[in-house]
Specification:
Helix content is 54%, strand content 8%. It has helices at 2-27, 57-74, 81-103, 127-158, 171-178, 191-194, and strands at residues 33-34, 38-45, 108-114. The longest helix is centred in the C-terminal third of the chain and has 32 residues, at 127-158.
Amino acid sequence: MYATTLVVAVVWIVLDQATKIAAVRSLEGQVPNDLGPLVLRVIRNTGGAFSLPLRLPWVFVLVAIIVTVLVIRALPQTRSLGLATAYGLVVGGAIGNGADRIFRDGAVVDMLDLDFAPLQNFPVFNVADIGITVGAMLVAVLMVLEDRRLAREEPAVLEPLGHGGAAEPDAADVQSETDTPTDTPTDTPTDEAERPVQVPPGTDA
């Protein structure tokens, strides 16, 4: 689980930073590149994710650190590769935008602008934002599915015990009890049978 989360996070960080470097070199100061439903334009975002108007860059760095710590603490209890992958997306996106806050004067490079109804007014975003959003949605969905799976398994565990009561005896145990011999003897000789018969004197034996 640790390896899966780490690999996904590193891959997403590299992908995010590579697209930002390419966008700054080829698009900054240029006319937006219209690709139909998607327009490529560079915006230096000093606010929050998806260009939210929050001017607290170091708070976002702290949030990225907190998210990473929370994921590391959750990994020992993680048993799903899908959940580990989702954690990697969230961590990769948080670190990707956090790196911009540190190395780009507190501004995040956004370059993806949707231009189709009904999302034509959607804020400009980047690859890191995609990782955070998709990863968080996957975490929520997978946790709900895991809770439902555990809820289905719990009655199956309690059913053999009579829903939490004492277990009923097996047929083999009942049979073994009926085959056990009793302690009362059937042909025990009495004291009269063991006592010798005394013949009176003068009589024939």
